[in-house]
Structures are given as structure tokens and as C-alpha cells.
């Protein structure tokens, strides 16, 4: 029930109004004394018992609740797990005669029916409550009680009041921020929605405050460390501020599905002034380049300190890294996923269309679909009460703004198992995620009259590899089979048929006859500024000699698959004997591509050709991710809490052009707040030498992350593991 109607506004019944408390920050002002209904004392209430103080046992409770790592002076507990409070009175407590209540409130409109007002009673008069309480011990004028928040409790910061109840009324303690406490999701408890049974996975997906985000491209996987920093000072409050800024009703904040759904919208700024402003233009002069960030804590604290002004700028891994921090801070197991060759299906037809000119070169204006080198999203682990049991577990949540869902730019949560089984009728956004990992790449070629026809279909290019960080190591796990069955298998065909019955458009093209010839594009690992050779191995899988005419288009490309400009176009012809493979090589000079490079330095090569004897088409694509120069880092000193360490960072410009607007970032959870150093320019052959002192403030395995970012180079990173002792 709601709070008693005899209490003054805003406590009483609101009569014909429905109030949804939407802010954890707003609090109600409580009267110190209350008269019971029908009892009007002529003077002050008798002070037969008085509360002197409350002891929240912060250190002991935090250890028991796995929250000691939070740099927060308040108590932090988890749902459905008991925590201790000592209540000190002015005399011994007599449980046969005395009654004391603990009131726990969140928001400005406390309501028992909405879970924002909880009362737990001890002594002679008992009241029903969704939270459990036990009188554990009496000693002198003090009692120790155990409080267990409900397993579906709202997540957030609660205020605590002790209320002495007698025959005429109540006397309440004053508001005291020292007795405020936070309630989080509890992945250790089997009854909690986010329960995760494996301890090693809990340590990785809830407690690890640094991670690895994979990038690069399918043939040259690279990575960068990311400081999640969910335990850093102010980060938990910043995460609650995000929910307040998004006006998410408090009563829904105990449901992990609702929290994930709202967070995927609130992390981007398009609809609701969310945390991060996305930017893929290459112009970041009014903010920080996405490639320059080293972690989430800096972003979240900046958003909160600016009162909810979006932080500039982000791309997919920044969105995913920041959302991962949000989930872990609230106690929801979460991890960052990288999908290599990820389709962005603008047409909603599970096809990524590549348009070719009559000469076989790529028509950049007509090619609207894109295949990202990689795309990062999040998975969160939870039970889905709104889905059949088999679809609980890992759920996709993607806050990178790509398409709208229910009117907002967001995606998920959607069950990974739903994606794998093609059961796409369940919430939320399963069709979009299914397309990201299952789209066909369809090559269309225009004739000289502007008519197009399908000349090649690749059913294996998209979603070739899906990875995430392996627990307790720096390597990755291949989780591709979590999302899809092996291509061409009986299960894969069954899934595609079910997906079509669930609303995926049927493919309107008939399978093309096999050309009997395949092209495999090879290249070595290449650094920016190097000349290299592209090798196209033409495999003749027929019993006849084949002559193949090829057109090779080389484009500078953003990691999202969009091309910026064409820098090379060449034609080749090769005769290949039956059942043989013949290599065709193309020399690529640095002078040809350097002036066209865009951020992350990707080159796309599209090869399209025709078998002269049969007229059948062959096509292939390959992305080359050019590696940046190295960033050198060194730490000297003994890694100990409270003891200074000397950090040296160095970089040399190996190019014959000047690097401008150079920004160097140093970051490490438990080691140092984010440090930023800027340089106007670094001349050809010039160097950056940066030395600073850091003082570790938390023991254990830590990672110091360095990142140098500038025009035209980006994402020059390095990291050092440091074991800090007490």
C-alpha cells in the first residue's frame, strides 16, 4: 500500500493523480514527529525511547557484499543478501514493550506499492514488508539487526530513518547522509534476475575494472585495453544520474531488462541528450576524437559534472565500453563483443548490396549498405521474464545509434539464443542483430544503360568471427557459434527458414551458378607508410583452362565500411590451368594511398572479374588495416599503494610530414586519474617525451593505458600490467 493518507503532501494519497518518481537525486523532507490517526496529543510525544545513532557497518558489510572496491564512503549492498545495522538507544531496548522501525526511502514520492518506501519493524508491533529484518543481538543500549533487501528491489541510493513508535505516534531520526546506502543487482544470488553461477565469470564480467576491446579486421585482429573504472569515485553516482536524466521511473529500476533497454538509448545523445555524441565525420575539433579515449570513467564523470551535457565524441567501441561500465557498476554481468564483418542493413532485407559500374569498379554513390570491419556491442547476462526460459542468458544491448527502435535510437536487449535459432518474433530488435551477423553480400553490376543485375552473392563474408575477452587472460574467446550455426549446415538452413517465417524478407534472387573459379586476396601485416604487395590467388576448380579478366578497385575506407575515395584502379588478365591456382600480384606504393587515408587507416580492395570462357562473374573483397607506429611506455619504482611511480612515455614521428594537434592520454583504474597532455605539432623525425608521477591507490593487478592520437594518425596505444602491493 501507499504511505498513510494522513501524512502531509507529498506523502499522502495523491487523489486522481498518478505520480512516477523519476529521480534518485530528489528526496523528500520528513517530519520528525507524526501523530497516529485519531490521536492528537496536547503536548510533545512521550520520549520513552530515543534513537541516538545508527552504525551501518560499512567496511564489514561491503566485504560481505563484494562491494569493497567501490571508491565510495557510503554503504553499498546487493539485493537479497543480509546486511547489518546497529541501533543505539538512550536505554536498553525491550522487544516486548518497545517498537522501532527502519524506514528505507528512494526518490521524492515514497510509495510502498512502487517499492520506493520500505518499513521493517522490530519489537512489540510487527508490520509486513517486502524487505526482511531480523533482530540478531542485544547488548547494553544497542541492538544489531539484519536487513535483507527484496530480490526485486529497486537499484539506487536509499535514505535510512529510524522511527520509534509508541501508542500516540512516531518520532523519526533526522536525515543523515552518512546512513544513505546503495542497493545493486546481485549476480551471486540464485534468486536474482542477473544471477551468474560461475565465479570466474563473475570476477571477469562484474568485478574486472579493465578490459580488452578487439578491433582491426578479420585477417589482422588487433586490440586496445579499456579502463572500465566502474569502482572509481563518482562513477556509480554518475550511472544513477544517467537514469535520472533519462527520466526512467524508479519503480522499473529493479528490472534488469528494463534497465538494459533504457540504457541502450540513454548512452547516445540523439534522442534524449544521452551520454555520448556519435561522430563519424572525421572532424572532432569541438571535442575529443573517439580514438583518443582510454576509458569510461572520464566520460561518465564529465557527463555528470556538466549536468547531462553530451560528451563529444564516440564511435562503437567507445559506446560499448562506456555502456559496459554502466552495467558492471550496477551489478549486471556485461562484456564487450566484437563482430567482424558486421552488416548494417539499411533496407531491412538481410542483404548488403555492393553496386558495381559496368567496368567492374565500385560505384560509391549507389552503394548505401555498409559492412563494418568490426562493430562492438554489449552482452548482458540475465533471466528474461518476458521470454521463454531457453532464451535467458546472454542478451545483446547496442547503444551505437544505427536505427530506431520504438521511436528511439537503441537496440536490445535481445536474446543471443533467439538470434542463433532464428526465432525473431521476441523483443527486442532481434531482426536487426540477426542481419548484422547473417546478411548476404550481393554484388550488383550496372550495364551502360543503367540497368543492374546480380552478378555474385557471398553468403559467408558477414559475421565471420565474433569474439570477446576470455576471463582471466588477455586473449579472446571465439563465440561465433553462440550466434549462428556453421554456414551451409542443416541447422543453418533450418534457422534461415524459421527466420523467414518470423518476418525476415525472403531472398528474391535465385542462387547463381558456381563460376568454378574463386579469388583469395592475401597481404602481409603492413605499417602505415609502407609499400606492399597485394596477391590475388585465382583458384580454378574446374577441369578446363580458364582465362579470368579482373578489375581491382582500391579505396580508402572508414572502419564502418564507407569509402572516402578511390586511389587505385587496375585491370588484369590471367590464364589458369585446370585444378590449379595462379597468383596475380599488384604493387601498392605508399605514395598512392597516404594522402587519402582516413581515421584508423583502412584500405578496401574489391576485385570483380569474369571468366571469359563462360561469362560467369567472380568477386572478392579484402580490407587492409594499416598498423600505426609504436608508443613506448616504461614504469620505474616499486608498485605499492601510496608510493610514487615514475612513468615515461615516448613516441617518434617516422614520417616526412608534420603531426598536428597531438593528444597523449594516460589512464589506469587504481593507478591514476586520467592525465592528458597536448602538443601543437610533432615535426618529421621529431619525438614526444613525457614523464610524470603516478601514485597507486588500490592493490592488485592494474593496467596502465597510454594513447596518442593526432591528425592524421589515430589509435596509437600501449599498455603495461602492474601488480600493486599494499
TrEMBL record:
Active site: residue positions: 316, 375, 398
Pfam families documented for this protein: Transglut_C, Transglut_core, Transglut_N
InterPro entries linked: Ig-like_fold, Ig_E-set, Papain-like_cys_pep_sf, Transglutaminase, Transglutaminase-like, Transglutaminase-like_sf, Transglutaminase_animal, Transglutaminase_C
Limits of the Transglutaminase-like domain: 308-401
A biological-process GO annotation: blood coagulation, fibrin clot formation
SUPFAM superfamilies: Cysteine proteinases, E set domains, Transglutaminase, two C-terminal domains
Molecular function per GO: protein-glutamine gamma-glutamyltransferase activity
Family that this chain belongs to: Belongs to the transglutaminase superfamily. Transglutaminase family.
PANTHER family in the record: COAGULATION FACTOR XIII A CHAIN, PROTEIN-GLUTAMINE GAMMA-GLUTAMYLTRANSFERASE
Listed name of the protein: Coagulation factor XIII, A1 polypeptide a, tandem duplicate 1
Species of the source: Danio rerio
Gene assigned in the entry: f13a1a.1
Amino acid at each position: 500500500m501507499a504511505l498513510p493518507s494522513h501524512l502531509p503532501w507529498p506523502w499522502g494519497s495523491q487523489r486522481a493523480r498518478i505520480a512516477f518518481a523519476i529521480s534518485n537525486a530528489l528526496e523528500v523532507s520528513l517530519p520528525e514527529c507524526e501523530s497516529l490517526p485519531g490521536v492528537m496529543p496536547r503536548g510533545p510525544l512521550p520520549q520513552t525511547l530515543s534513537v541516538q545513532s545508527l552504525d551501518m557497518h560499512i567496511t564489514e558489510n561491503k566485504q560481505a557484499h563484494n562491494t569493497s572496491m567501490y571508491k565510495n564512503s557510503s554503504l553499498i549492498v546487493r539485493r537479497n543478501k543480509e546486511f547489518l545495522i546497529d541501533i543505539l538507544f538512550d536505554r536498553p531496548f525491550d522487544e516486548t514493550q518497545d517498537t522501532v522501525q527502519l524506514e528505507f526511502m528512494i526518490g521524492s514520492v515514497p510509495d510502498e506499492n512502487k517499492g520506493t518506501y520500505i518499513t521493517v519493524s522490530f519489537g512489540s508491533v510487527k508490520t509486513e514488508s517486502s524487505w526482511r529484518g531480523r533482530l540478531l543481538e542485544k547488548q547494553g543500549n544497542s541492538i544489531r539487526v539484519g536487513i535483507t533487501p527484496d530480490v526485486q528491489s529497486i537499484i539506487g541510493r536509499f535514505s535510512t530513518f529510524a522511527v520509534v513508535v509508541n501508542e500516540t505516534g512516531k518520532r523519526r531520526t533526522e536525515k543523515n547522509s552518512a546512513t544513505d546506502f546503495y542497493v545493486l543487482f546481485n549476480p551471486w544470488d540464485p534468486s536474482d534476475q542477473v544471477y551468474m553461477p560461475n565465479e570466474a565469470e563473475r570476477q571477469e564480467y562484474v568485478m574486472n575494472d579493465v578490459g580488452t576491446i578487439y578491433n582491426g579486421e578479420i585477417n589482422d585482429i588487433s586490440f586496445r585495453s579499456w579502463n572500465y573504472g566502474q569502482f572509481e569515485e563518482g562513477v556509480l553516482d554518475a550511472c544513477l544520474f544517467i537514469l535520472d536524466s533519462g527520466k526512467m521511473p524508479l519503480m522499473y529500476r529493479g528490472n534488469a531488462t528494463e534497465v538494459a533497454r533504457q540504457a541502450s538509448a540513454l548512452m547516445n545523445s540523439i534522442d534524449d541528450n544521452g551520454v555520448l555524441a556519435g561522430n563519424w565525420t572525421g572532424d572532432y575539433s569541438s571535442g575529443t576524437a573517439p580514438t583518443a579515449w582510454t576509458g569510461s570513467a572520464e566520460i561518465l564523470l564529465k557527463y555528470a559534472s556538466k549536468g547531462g551535457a553530451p560528451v563529444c565524441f564516440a564511435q562503437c567501441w567507445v559506446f560499448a565500453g562506456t555502456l559496459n561500465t554502466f552495467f558492471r557498476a550496477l551489478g549486471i554481468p556485461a562484456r564487450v563483443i566484437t563482430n567482424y564483418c558486421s552488416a548494417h542493413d539499411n533496407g531491412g532485407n538481410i542483404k548488403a548490396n555492393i553496386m558495381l559500374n559496368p567496368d567492374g569498379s565500385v560505384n560509391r554513390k549507389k552503394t548505401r549498405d555498409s559492412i563494418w570491419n568490426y562493430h562492438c556491442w554489449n552482452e548482458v547476462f540475465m533471466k528474461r521474464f518476458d521470454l521463454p526460459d531457453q532464451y535467458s542468458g546472454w542478451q545483446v544491448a547496442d547503444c551505437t545509434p544505427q536505427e530506431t527502435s520504438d521511436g528511439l535510437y537503441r537496440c536490445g536487449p535481445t536474446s543471443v539464443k533467439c538470434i542463433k535459432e532464428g526465432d525473431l518474433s521476441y523483443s527486442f530488435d532481434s531482426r536487426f542483430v540477426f542481419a548484422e551477423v547473417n546478411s548476404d553480400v550481393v554484388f550488383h553490376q550496372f550495364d551502360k544503360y543503367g540497368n543492374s543485375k546480380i552478378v555474385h552473392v557471398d553468403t559467408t563474408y558477414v559475421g565471420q568471427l565474433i569474439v570477446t575477452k576470455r576471463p582471466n587472460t588477455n586473449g579472446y574467446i571465439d563465440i561465433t557459434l553462440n550466434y549462428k550455426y556453421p554456414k551451409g549446415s542443416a541447422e543453418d538452413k533450418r534457422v534461415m527458414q524459421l527466420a523467414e517465417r518470423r518476418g525476415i524478407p525472403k531472398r528474391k534472387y535465385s542462387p547463381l551458378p558456381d563460376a568454378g573459379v574463386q579469388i583469395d586476396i592475401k597481404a602481409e601485416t603492413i605499417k602505415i607508410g609502407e609499400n606492399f604487395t597485394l596477391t590475388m590467388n585465382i583458384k580454378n576448380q574446374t577441369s578446363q583452362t580458364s582465362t579470368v579478366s579482373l578489375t581491382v578497385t582500391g579505396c580508402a575506407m572508414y572502419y564502418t565500411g564507407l569509402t572516402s575515395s578511390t586511389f587505385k584502379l587496375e585491370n588484369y588478365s590471367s590464364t589458369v590451368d585446370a585444378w590449379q591456382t595462379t597468383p596475380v600480384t599488384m604493387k601498392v606504393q605508399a605514395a598512392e594511398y597516404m594522402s587519402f587515408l582516413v581515421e584508423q587507416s583502412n584500405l578496401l580492395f574489391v576485385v570483380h572479374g569474369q571468366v571469359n570462357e563462360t561469362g560467369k562473374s567472380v568477386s572478392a573483397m579484402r580490407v587492409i588495416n594499416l598498423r600505426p607506429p609504436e608508443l613506448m611506455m616504461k614504469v620505474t619504482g616499486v608498485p605499492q599503494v601510496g608510493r610514487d611511480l615514475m612513468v615515461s612515455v615516448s613516441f617518434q614521428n617516422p614520417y616526412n610530414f608534420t603531426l598536428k594537434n597531438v593528444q597523449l592520454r594516460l589512464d589506469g583504474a587504481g593507478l591514476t586519474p586520467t592525465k592528458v597532455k597536448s602538443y601543437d605539432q610533432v615535426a618529421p623525425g621529431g619525438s614526444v617525451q613525457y614523464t610524470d608521477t603516478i601514485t597507486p591507490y588500490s592493490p592488485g593487478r592494474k593496467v596502465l593505458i597510454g594513447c596518442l592520437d593526432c591528425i592524421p594518425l589515430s589509435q596509437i596505444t600501449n599498455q603495461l600490467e602492474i601488480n600493486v602491493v599494499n
